[in-house]
Design brief:
The structure is a homodimer. Helices cover about 75% and strands about 0% of the residues of chain A.
Chain lengths: ~325, ~325
């Protein structure tokens, strides 16, 4: 990385060139992208009358988080030869959709959670009625935002993105995964097939949309979209397996202390089906396969490669 | 109308020509369009795994009703020189969005209704969790369906439709209207300005989208879109005023019998602000103004003219 002093005496193009030659640092990359996404999200949804609904939508949309979904979308758009500007409205829309799913998932009729990331959930602050409407508002706005704000991309490609976003969040995606998850609650005999269905739909479909939509916006070819789709499916499932592993590890370390996790343990998980060791092996294999899909993109795939590794190496 | 016997000996074009010359009959027109919309809706959402969510979505989407929203969309597309086929995916999407708003509106955290059109509400049949997800699924699918299924329309126009649909249902439209409506619950001192805001957003915004999107798909010019937008805003408000009038009339006739309506009467309404007579005059004036907007479309506006009259003349 170049120092602040150097940047003052170099042109922007020179700085970018130097930055490209510097070894890739994932945490710097993620922090930079996260800041860009935060700024874009903040300006995407200004406060206006009736303020209460906008406050509620902004409360959850701007509640922090790693912003991994929008970052994946921006990364694949760049990988496929596009710019951050082309993908930013879709990146924001993906976070709006993700936020909607969290608000509705936290409702008393669903998971009934009072806290998320240490903050009160939307319905605990604004009431259930407003929380339902805030989710609806965010979902509708996501599509409006992509349709209206995407610049420099042929309209046909924007339509493809909208179709993919709709499919990823609807009954053929996230909603379908949640329904099967609800049906399996408290059932420990859930099959591997069903467990895979839940995760490839509940979290995998939207992750895939993030990765593929970025490339669609940049005009990537079908073969590249397929490679990226398989990359996304693999890291999505690996992410979930690692989640399950960390949940068990955490429970063992804090044994007797966290009564809530015992209840959570009534859920079917990969370690329950495979044991811890095989789960770890499977997660690593999925990440290796994900990275193998990116080989043809050469150094342009460095950020996506690093994100794949990040998933298995994380400890929380 | 030509008899069935005549139709057998005439070409389709001749029959259509004869039908055009026959005096326009609104109930025949509405019945024909309704049947087309029902068929399109039925085939838009096939039952697949996980069946429960598709059953829930279909239960409410195919629960009948006048299908006025999709019919308005088809009518303005034809008025502006387009075909029914061009507008049918958007017409279906409008009904999916309307259905989503009804499912979520009926939830215990919102209006808490057990019945709609004589049938149990979605959450009474499938549970609150599934009802929330069914609404989300319908909303997402509406956008996917327009993006994927619209044929014979330039992609830029389809994007415009998607942006308008999103705006009509989000915080700048339906959701915003519902929020202000919730805030005004039990308040009898609601101002005319606020009452207008509620209705132009809660029902008016989607009605306007129906009318304008049909014309956008047909490639109508900005001036025509503005005329149609004013037509829609006027009939939307007239519709609500007539609703309020009928609610009072019905209450008076059935006095003492319907305790539920007394509670409903705690709401701010137009007759409460203006009295019955002025409300009737205002509704008629709005319908007259709506029809005046259509003058330049000449006989192509006959269906929309008739629908405007239908709104003030209805008795239920």
């Amino acid at each position: 990385m170049t120092s602040t002093k150097d940047q003052k005496t170099l042109s922007t193009a020179q700085v970018h060139s130097l930055q490209r030659e510097a070894p890739f640092d994932l945490s710097t990359y993620l922090a930079e992208r996260q800041a860009q996404v935060e700024a874009a999200l903040d300006s995407s949804l200004p406060l206006t009358y009736p303020e209460k609904i906008y406050e509620s939508m902004r409360y959850s949309l701007l509640a922090g988080g790693k912003r991994l979904r929008p970052i994946l979308c921006l990364a694949t758009c760049e990988l496929a030869g596009g710019t951050i500007e082309m993908a930013m409205p879709t990146a924001c829309a993906l976070e709006m959709i993700h936020t909607m799913s969290l608000i509705h998932d936290d409702l008393p009729a669903m998971d009934n959670d009072d806290y998320r990331r240490g903050k009160l959930t939307n319905h605990k602050v604004y009431g259930e009625d407003i929380a339902i409407l805030a989710g609806d508002g965010l979902l509708a706005y996501a599509f409006e935002y992509v349709a209206k704000e995407t610049k420099g991309v042929p309209a046909e490609q924007v339509l493809q993105v909208i179709a993919r976003l709709g499919r990823a969040v609807g009954a053929a995606g996230l909603v379908g995964g949640q329904v099967v998850d609800l049906e399996c609650e408290g059932k420990l005999d859930t099959s591997l097939e069903t467990l895979n269905f839940i995760h490839t739909h509940k979290t995998g479909a939207l992750l895939e949309a993030c990765v593929v939509c970025g490339a669609v916006l940049a005009g990537a070819e079908a073969a590249d979209l397929q490679r990226l789709s398989r990359y996304a499916q693999n890291i999505g499932l690996a992410f979930q397996i690692v989640d399950d592993i960390l949940d068990i590890t955490a429970t063992q370390e804090e044994l007797g202390k966290t009564a809530g996790k015992d209840v959570q343990a009534q859920k079917a998980t990969y370690p329950r089906l495979w044991g811890l060791e095989q789960s770890q092996r499977q997660a690593q294999q999925l990440v290796d396969e994900a990275k193998a899909e990116l080989a043809s993109f050469e150094e342009r795939a460095i950020p996506l490669m690093a994100i794949a590794d990040f998933i298995t190496n994380r400890t929380h």
